[in-house]
């Protein structure tokens, strides 16, 4: 479609001016405030409560907590927010709604890196709720993320409450994935993953293939029931994920 101009035809697309990020953010914030005002706000800040994604990590392993605001709450990334004059601050509390203390980063074991907090590694005292607050003099938005830090079960390489669960059918194929390891793989690098069953090295039969971050069982048998742990190195740290496989 075109519009007629006194000097000729003017393409409609050329008449569209780009929407400044600040205006877009203003629209998002105003909309959020209207929605959240029904359940109240905290200290004048739009509070999105606790995000559905719960972080769980074993004692001594690294973990990255990302500010969920940039992953589903606002249509902007960290760089855009900075360009618009917004600051990202982090707070910690023992529970949602309890007193929140500003976090002091030592830049070593615990560091703030763009839109996330890195723990290298996590300690038991790190467990709690982490709130990221995006604000300037006019706007303020906040969301909290929960972090659980736990030790391995006695004489095991995993915590039974932190396992993933998969089901398989006898004689059918099944793929077990080493889940949640994206943050620990360098871009373009091929991860070196070692698989264990019941925390012990295993001589895998020919019908079980290891490919990148998966363990592929071509024909499931009853003795495949059990706990599968994948392990990879991240700097000087070890990252493990355990999946319990049941067979029907």
Using the alpha-carbon principal axes, give the shape: elongated
Global mean pLDDT: 84
Q: Which architecture of the largest domain does the CATH hierarchy give at level 2? A: Sandwich
CATH homology group of the largest domain? Immunoglobulins
Gyration radius, in Å: 24 Å
Number of domains: 2
Query: Can you tell me the CATH topology of the largest domain?
Result: Immunoglobulin-like
Give the helices and strands as they follow along the chain.
EEHHEEEHEEEEEEEEEEEEE
CATH top level of the largest domain?
A: Mainly Beta
Unreliable spans are 1-42
Helices, by number, come to: 3
CA(first)-CA(last) distance? 60 Å
Q: How can the largest sheet be summarized? A: 6 strands, mixed
Organism: Takifugu bimaculatus
GO biological process, one term: negative regulation of exocytosis
Subcellular location: Cytoplasm; Endomembrane system
InterPro entries: Ig-like_dom (IPR007110), Ig-like_dom_sf (IPR036179), Ig-like_fold (IPR013783), Ig_sub (IPR003599), IL-1_rcpt_fam (IPR015621), IL-1RAcP-like_ig (IPR041416)
Description:
- The chain has 3 helices and 18 strands.
- With 248 residues, the protein is mainly beta.
- It folds into 2 domains: 46-150, Immunoglobulin-like, CATH 2.60.40.10; 164-247, Immunoglobulins (Immunoglobulin-like, Sandwich).
- Strands 3, 4, 6, 7, 10 and 11 form a 6-stranded mixed beta sheet that branches. A 4-stranded mixed beta sheet has the order 12-18-17-14, with no helix packed on it. It has a 3-stranded antiparallel beta sheet with strand order 5-9-8, with no helix packed on it.
- A hairpin with a 2-residue loop joins strand 8 and strand 9 (116-119).
- GO terms for molecular function: hydrolase activity.
